[in-house]
Queue: 2 jobs
Job 1
Amino acid sequence: MTTATRKLREKEELRQLILQSAKKLFVEKGIENTTIRNIADATDYSVGTVYVYFKDKNAILHDLHTIGFSELGGYFLEISPVDDPLERLKQMGRIYLKFAVENPDMYDLMFNIKEPLKHLAEKENDGCEAWDEGIGTFNILKSTVKDCIDKGYFSGHEEEPLSFMIWGVVHGMCTLEIRKRTKGLKFNRPETILTDGYKEFLKMLDKV
Amino acid sequence: MTTATRKLREKEELRQLILQSAKKLFVEKGIENTTIRNIADATDYSVGTVYVYFKDKNAILHDLHTIGFSELGGYFLEISPVDDPLERLKQMGRIYLKFAVENPDMYDLMFNIKEPLKHLAEKENDGCEAWDEGIGTFNILKSTVKDCIDKGYFSGHEEEPLSFMIWGVVHGMCTLEIRKRTKGLKFNRPETILTDGYKEFLKMLDKV
DNA sequence: ATAAAAAATGAACGTTGTTCAAAAAAAATT
DNA sequence: AATTTTTTTTGAACAACGTTCATTTTTTAT
């Protein structure tokens, strides 16, 4: 059975080659400027081959979006396991911001672009598949917020909507930046508006 | 000169017809599912005519994005001119949220879709045109925040980054919703997560 | 009634995602 | 070693997209 296992490995390797070529092109020239033909060229295979390994473009985008979440997970490893949960929460936000700034295209794919989720909806078993990657990441945030509440922070607040709101703060600022809504504005310090904005949020957290 | 002025009016009328047809199609079937041919059909004119009145698709998207800002301005008229600036700030956020929920496609066009700003960049005089609509709206927010600071709220905070952060909160939650990142998650009360999240932010404001 | 100007047209172009019969390569069988 | 079967790869072809522009139609001026 040595040929069968080898074939399986080769299939997986080509799959990864296509994925990594696509990712490289995305970062180099933007997602919307990358075509299937570009990806095929970059892998030295034909368009038809790409479609053997991926159902359609959305499938590629979904797989790359999943890779993005795994990379975000890598960033989160930086969080020092300090005792104070509020301190961990603050670090989470900072790292989330850092990831978005350093990987704007990946961030966009993970949290803004609709295609990856369309691919989920298409393989509908019961109408709508769950967004596992998003759920997982949100649960990390939510459990940190819960730790805060348990330690006496955020009195009078509710865990889930508070977590969503906190997600909204960082996501909102990241997305305004990535979707060029900060560039068109005339900030006093445009190059640091993201971290400056986040600092204001941290000040609020200290008062709560 | 009666014919010349009538022609001018007729040109403007057709221009508006195209814009309104486009807007209707956007709302009905989504922006990315609306083609120039759709718009031409809806106006009972040909594709070529559309291109007489608009340089390209981005020009249409930009004009519609501007209309969106004017509609948002209409929503803001609801804000009661109450003395307490913090109360006005809270209302602003609520209305911003309401606008986004009631006009998701328009909101997306105004704050997420890149094409309207691409159109701005294309008529570059000096490299990059200013995003007047965004600047105007942000200034309203910023001056309300300034009023708050002047009345003793937000001590220790800086006007501009604080305003950006507040924008981020509401924009972030709206965009997670519009870009289907809340649907994939399993919230306890999915239908009210936006307003619930905003309520958490209001609680924070009351402590600051 | 005729000439000049303006407005509207739709066929055609290049590019996109996608498909699929045919060709090429690899594996299995005799 | 030769042949058959299976797997893999291919790229021409399709429909739909944004866009252009020579031509036609309509309107205005003479």
Note: Chain B touches chain A through 50 residues (CB under 8 Å).
Job 2
Amino acid sequence: MRRDVFQAIADPTRREILGMIAHKSLNINAVTEQFDVSRAAIYKHMKILSECGLLEIRQKGRERYCEGKFERLNEVSDWVAQYRQFWEARLDSLEDYLEQLKKEKYGKSSE
Amino acid sequence: MRRDVFQAIADPTRREILGMIAHKSLNINAVTEQFDVSRAAIYKHMKILSECGLLEIRQKGRERYCEGKFERLNEVSDWVAQYRQFWEARLDSLEDYLEQLKKEKYGKSSE
DNA sequence: TAAATTTGAAACCAAAAGGTTGCATAAATA
DNA sequence: TATTTATGCAACCTTTTGGTTTCAAATTTA
């Protein structure tokens, strides 16, 4: 079966899951609570994500805490980047965005 | 049927098609020649891409030339960007990359 | 220890995805 | 005009996807 990052993030439920665990590790039941589908369905989604390296699992007793591993998204990022020049005329605005990112990362001064 | 950019770029054949038409418009037969599958299969892929706004078609006599429209990739770009801070520690290298992009765009001086 | 909780995974199902062949139509050409 | 070329699309098929129910195993907890 095909198992790559592009396919992994194609599913909206899986993108939501990644959003949920970005800031906080959650076990499978905790993730399941946020959706209308069964635990087994969520389990399968998370298995796909973990097989793609987009999440990692830490066993803790009978629970398994899942945390996002977003490094692999650089494959997507790189792929998109090669086309950026075709649509993003204003590279300066990207620079602005980058500045903003750095501010966020290295301490927000005024908020 | 679900029809969004994430799903559109999930298929490797469609990503290849986008790569082919990025620099040069091609008609459907010309695209088909590059693959092992039938014209009908390629036609379906291109239909999906056009329904997602990732390519546009210019009729020219009996031929239809397809050109890439990459603006819609910013949806993917934005989605990935929100996680960049989780994996990209070296924002400076992104700045370098940006510089390189600008050089490419505004004229390469020495090559 | 007995019961409850958390999970993994098998078996199964319906729908979607990706492919095919075949045919119709419109445009270009011999 | 008859033929070739380029395409749209229907009908059909197989595999994959995303979901379900069910059961077993391991860990807590009463």
Note: Chain B touches chain A at residues 4, 6-7, 9-10, 12, 15, 18, 22, 68-71, 73-74, 76-77, 79-81, 83-88, 91, 94-95, 97-98, 101-102, 104-105 (CB under 8 Å).
